[in-house]
Give the backbone structure.
Amino acid sequence: MSQNERHTETERQKQIIAEARRNRELREKTYRERALKLFPHVCGKCGREFSGKKLKELTVHHRDHDHDNNPPDGSNWELLCIYCHDNEHSRHVDAEWYGAEVPGGDQESASSNKPFAGLAALLKKKE
Ligand SMILES: [Zn+2]
Ligand SMILES: [Zn+2]
């Protein structure tokens, strides 16, 4: 009996974690889009410009490293290319932007999301 209970508990925890991750991915997508509308598509560190397919290499960095702190004026955001963003975080491990680009273990959404993300960026640029 106790084994069954533990199994159920694990399943419930798995569900909660999966839902939290989904919510986070959704939220990250939203603030990335907002940040891309607010700021020029230029890396804040190296100054490289990003457009079209390359735009997905531009990521949102949180100045205070708190990705729950998303003021609508974008004051906590900085657009960084993936290389500079990696440098910025190299001192301590932080999955902030990995969460969006490489969903851990979620192979299905990873393979179906990526081509569309590129396509959407391309279409947006042409308008
Ligand atoms: Zn850069
Ligand atoms: Zn960051």
User: Anything to note?
Assistant: Residues 99-113 have pLDDT under 50 and may be disordered. The pocket of zinc ion (ligand 1) is lined by residues 43, 45-46, 48, 80-81, 83-84 (CB under 6 Å). Residues 53 and 118 are 5 Å apart (CA to CA).
